[in-house]
Design goal:
Order of helices and strands: HHHEEEHHEEHHHEEHEHEHEH
Number of domains: 3
Mean pLDDT: 82
Radius of gyration: 24 Å
Strand order of the largest sheet: 3-4-5-7-6
Low-confidence stretches: 178-182, 252-256, 344-348
Structural class: alpha+beta
CATH architecture of the largest domain: 2-Layer Sandwich
Helix content: 40-55%
CATH topology of the largest domain: Heat Shock Protein 90
Strand content: 15-25%
Number of strands: 10
Length: about 350
Amino acid sequence: MKIRARGEQIRRFIVEQVTAHPGDIAKVTAKRFGITRQAVNKHLTNLVNEGALIAEGRTRQIAYKLCPLASWTKKYSLKAGLAEDTVWREDIVSQLGQLPANVMSIWHLGFTEMFNNAIDHSGARTITVQIEKTADYADVWVLDNGVGIFKKIQDALGLADERHAVLELAKGKLTTDPMRHSGEGIFFCSRMFDRFAIISGGTYFSHDFGNAEDWIMEAKTPLKSATAVYMKLQNHTARTTQQVYREYSSGDDFGFSKTVVPVRLAQYGDDLLISRSQAKRLLARVDRFRTVLFDFEGVSAIGQAFADEIFRVFRLQHPNMELYAINASTDVQDMVNRALTTNVATGI
């Protein structure tokens, strides 16, 4: 039993590492487990025969890559009665195949949330779903031909730029339809998957699990009136939905009461964050949370007015909230400390 378990461990390692080491996976695996390359080659041969890997080249030039186990696309017309749970049950489950319960739970949440968003918010005529599964991971695209998610948020909130919409999404609890949605779906989905991305208009937003920051950049190929959502998850991750929910709860309250605000998303190019208006934009809707962590990763400096608006003025207006600065440079932390210790009565 122990020998079989070790063999499965070796196979899992090969599958997880082959993309990064296509030409030297035998060497890397042999070193990792203290076995001969001949022993590794037996596992590689079995994985090729089972259809999990593809071998390309010969002898010393051989390279391996993951073989798609499933590749599937379907277009859905947005007509009366189209429901995300029906699509999930009748189409998506069979395409994802046999996966651990915790992995299927994440996929169930992520797919139904994103498909429902397209139904309720996009104004699209069609939604297209694309799925690819390998022995290591599955990835899913949900694409609609609607108005574009960032554009819709920009218009609904009166924002000056689509990139401000990404900042609002990163905070969480954002919805343009509060009667039907809590605004938590996209936020939690972005935190559960190994990679979560949205391309809409000229803006690209992504979050990789384990990274503190979100990424926002200009899309290489702008989508003028559409939204594409991408989700990727390893087939054997130990992550659970409850672990992610718990991370963003405060104390014994398992409601969505804590958020991390990526401060750099309020910054354009080399602009410094110096004004109160920039701070107020960053503070929009954060009063919906009990605990707010302002993540200053990638921000080299801030102005006195910017820090004062957040850590003195807003803090005094919301005494029951907990506000923290994290990943701050020495210069940023000094400015935050100055705001925290400024005379409350005179504001100087």
